[in-house]
Amino acid sequence: MADKLILSNDEWRKRLTPEEFQVLRQHGTEYPGTGCFLGTKTPGTYVCAGCNNPLFKAGTKFESGTGWPSFTQTLSEDSVTEIRDVSHGMIRTEVRCARCDGHLGHVFPDGPPPTGLRYCMNSVAMKHVPEGSPIELVRA
């Protein structure tokens, strides 16, 4: 993985849309069924909207029926970090970008084979890079 990207909240506000900032930096969540990547099936790679860190291959995306884009596995072991989340009166596992620490969504143990995992992500926290296109990481 590339070097960590650490910016102040003021720097993040300048780089991100208000919706991206609310999800990535303030741990917000899109309303179910509203994300732009919910029904997409275009080949390529989903990257972090904050830093372009590669997160998921489009081939691991599946229709979970939850209202958020879902994936069975991350692109690599070091693409994301997983953190115990006890907010909102429940125990969940939060998923963050390993490079910029941006909130992406949560992972649940109720996905399909082969992993049995459901990485339930916010569309606004990601960008789609078409297959064969270069991925350039955002720099400080």
Automatic annotation (TrEMBL):
Domain of life from the UniProt record: Bacteria
Cofactor binding: number and manner: Binds 1 zinc ion per subunit. The zinc ion is important for the structural integrity of the protein.
Entry's EC annotation: 1.8.4.12
Names of required cofactors: Zn(2+)
Pfam family membership, one: SelR
Protein keywords: Metal-binding, Oxidoreductase, Zinc
GO cellular component terms listed in the entry, alphabetical order: cytoplasm
MsrB domain residues: 9-131
Binding sites annotated in the UniProt record for Zn(2+): C48, C51, C97, C100
GO molecular function: peptide-methionine (R)-S-oxide reductase activity; zinc ion binding
BP terms from Gene Ontology: protein repair; response to oxidative stress
Keyword Zinc among record annotations: yes
Record's catalysed reaction(s): L-methionyl-[protein] + [thioredoxin]-disulfide + H2O = L-methionyl-(R)-S-oxide-[protein] + [thioredoxin]-dithiol
InterPro entries the record matches: Met_Sox_Rdtase_MsrB, Met_Sox_Rdtase_MsrB_dom, Mss4-like_sf
Catalytic residues of the enzyme: C120 (nucleophile)
Family: Belongs to the MsrB Met sulfoxide reductase family.
Protein name: Peptide methionine sulfoxide reductase MsrB
Organism, scientific name: Corallococcus coralloides (strain ATCC 25202 / DSM 2259 / NBRC 100086 / M2) (Myxococcus coralloides)
